[in-house]
Amino acid sequence: MSETSLGPEDSKIITLARAARARNGTAEGAAVRDETGRTYTATDIDLPSLKLTAVQVAVAMAVSSGAVSLEAAALVTEGDEPGGDDLAVIEDLGRAVLFLAAPDGTVKGRYI
């Protein structure tokens, strides 16, 4: 599966996640789309007192902005699978699909 074989809205969140990751120079970039079509982008946080995945941050941003469910999410990372915490936080807001993509945008998997 490639980014070009996805719908335009799903390709968009992968592109946004890639851009966030590149802009901040972090290990992960994520983007989520809520039930109204709004998107939220984030990167992972790795501080001595706070460690969150990019997906967790993006979901927190969506929820704090009033989102009650997600349509889709994208995680850009060099990892081969999303973490259990990422899948759990997506499931907290329904059954949205999570696209896992490499830094070059190649889709490596589709989850949930």
TrEMBL record:
Query: In which domain of life is the source organism classified?
Result: Bacteria
Q: Which SUPFAM superfamilies match?
A: Cytidine deaminase-like
Concerning InterPro entries, the annotation shows: Cytidine_deaminase-like
One Gene Ontology MF term: catalytic activity
Q: How is this protein named in the record?
A: Cytidine deaminase
High-level lineage: Bacteria, Bacillati, Actinomycetota, Actinomycetes, Streptosporangiales
